[in-house]
Specification:
There is one protein chain. The protein is of the alpha/beta class. Helices cover 35% and strands 26% of the residues. A 9-stranded mixed sheet has the order 5-4-1-8-9-10-11-12-13, with helices on both faces. α12 links the parallel β15 and β16. α4 packs parallel to α5. The model has no long low-confidence stretch (mean pLDDT 88).
């Protein structure tokens, strides 16, 4: 199943859920126009036009997850006040579970932003200065939730006191014993409390502070970040860098994943929440980390183009991915999506040609063979051997090129209309499902040696042998390189 198919299915997480723990906040926006300076002081006068409240802090992480289609429960503390009541109402409206939320004597943390002409003029914060640390009642609630086995846990730290070292270590230790991954959006410079988590997602400034390094133009981030990863026993670090994308520190390497261009940036607040939430959703769906972060980059690019702390929605992400999905990439299918497309082609009375192979290191012989195959019909479907099946056929040193890259290169050929990767010893099951009009192999075969030749008779299909270009082979290329 492709990335976009997984996302369209809401990450296949229908029976799984996420637990978000951290500092809860209410974000309030007062928006108006500015046309004059106050006579009382040299400050602009904002004429109020509208006001609204949104979920802030760790609640915004939960909102992102919920709108992506992941069932989410939130744990933290709020005040027993009007703002706390308002926050609970918004959380319920967004279908976010509140089973882990406790009311506290301190006021609900509320950030009020005054905005004039799309420009933030001022922010007013209401928050408790007293530490909320080590609430036994909160730890008890979180323990109960962890025993119900969420698919993933996110610690969203806004340095407001909820995520003490004791609470963090309790959560990480218990989650690890249950094999539940823990992602952390960190704050401050003392990262010891996040030790043994699965990963952290600091921004560049936070990472610099945590590594205790002085940055110059020639600063090498790799060594201090690797040292930080090792000292905290993390699987990876995802360092967000705004317009420079995300740096993935995994194993002993650092790799930059470029940001997606965003033409208009209204508000970067909440982008980090979107990144960690999207990463978590992809991990719940068992997607590889690098692919997950590429999608998180795309999600972040969407939310910074909106005013205020706006969570990513499933619909927005799918729409953007569809827009970015090139015509070439659309040729690469899962079996399910290929069969849907085959149904369309057959309704259009298209003559379907089928072939298969490893196509490891694409060369002129391959290209010529596929061009000849395409001329035998209207549509050419190529069944591509997976990496594991290539290894079984060709030996441990093969493939040279991994299946995703082989598929992407083949998709660029105008002769190829559809690609599906298969891992079986032969493509017989695919042939039976697709029922092509023409089955093509190279002239080094005999027709009765071609897998599926007997089955084709059932639907009046036929086998065609295409002449191959002499002296052109992947083995010869590898030998020459050696």
């Amino acid at each position: 199943m492709t990335d976009i198919e997984i996302i369209k299915n809401k990450f296949n997480a229908h029976n799984q859920w996420a637990l978000v723990i951290g500092d809860l906040m209410l974000d309030r926006y007062l928006i108006g126009s500015v046309s004059r300076i106050s006579p009382e002081a040299p400050v602009p006068v904002v004429r109020l036009k509208e006001s609204f409240d949104r979920i802030g802090g760790s609640g915004n992480v939960a909102a992102n997850l919920s709108l992506l289609g992941i069932k989410t429960i939130l744990a933290g503390q709020i005040g027993n006040d009007i703002d706390g009541k308002k926050l609970l109402e918004i959380l319920k409206k967004n279908h976010i579970g509140i089973d882990g939320i406790l009311k506290d004597k301190n006021p609900t943390t509320t950030k009020t932003r005054i905005i004039g002409e799309h420009q933030q003029m001022m922010r007013i914060d209401q928050e408790a200065t007293a530490d909320l640390v080590d609430s036994k009642a909160l730890i008890k609630k979180i323990t109960t939730l962890l025993n119900k086995k969420p698919a993933i846990v996110i610690l969203s730290d806004y340095a407001k006191g909820v995520l003490s070292e004791r609470l963090c270590q309790h959560v990480i230790k218990l989650a690890k014993s249950k094999k539940i991954p823990v992602l952390v959006d960190p704050k401050g410079i003392h990262y010891e409390k996040y030790k043994n988590a699965t990963a952290i997602t600091p921004n560049k400034k936070e990472a610099i502070e945590a590594c205790h390094i002085h940055v110059t133009k020639n600063t090498n981030f790799l060594t201090p970040l690797l040292k930080l990863k090792k000292s905290l026993n993390l699987q990876f670090i995802a360092m967000t860098k705004g317009e420079d994308g995300i740096d993935l520190i995994q194993g002993d390497t650092i790799k930059n994943l470029p940001a997606v261009n965003q033409q208009q940036v209204f508000d970067v607040s909440g982008a980090g929440d979107t990144v960690i939430a999207t990463l978590a959703a992809c991990m719940v769906a068992k997607m590889p980390i690098e692919r997950s972060l590429n999608i998180a980059n795309i999600a972040a690019g969407i939310v910074i183009g909106k005013l205020g702390t706006i969570p990513i929605t499933h619909a927005d992400l799918v729409k953007t991915l569809n827009a970015q999905h090139s015509d070439q990439e659309k040729k690469i299918h899962s079996l399910e999506s290929l069969m849907e497309q085959v149904g369309v082609w057959k309704k259009q009375k298209k003559k379907i040609v089928f072939t298969n192979g490893c196509f490891d290191i694409l060369h002129a012989g391959h290209v010529t063979y596929l061009e000849k195959a395409k001329k035998l019909g209207d549509i050419l479907i190529l069944a591509l051997n997976s990496d594991s099946s290539v290894t079984k056929l060709k030996g441990k040193s093969r493939p040279v090129i991994h299946q995703e890259d082989r598929a992407r290169v083949l998709a660029a050929l105008s002769s190829v209309d559809g690609i599906v990767v298969f891992s079986e010893a032969t493509p017989l099951n695919l042939i039976k499902k697709i029922q092509p009009d023409v089955l093509v192999k190279g002239s080094d075969y005999k027709k009765n040696q071609v897998v599926g030749h007997q089955e084709l008779k059932k639907w009046n299909g036929k086998v065609e042998l295409v002449s191959i270009v002499p002296g052109r082979s992947t083995s010869a290329i590898i030998k020459k390189i050696s």
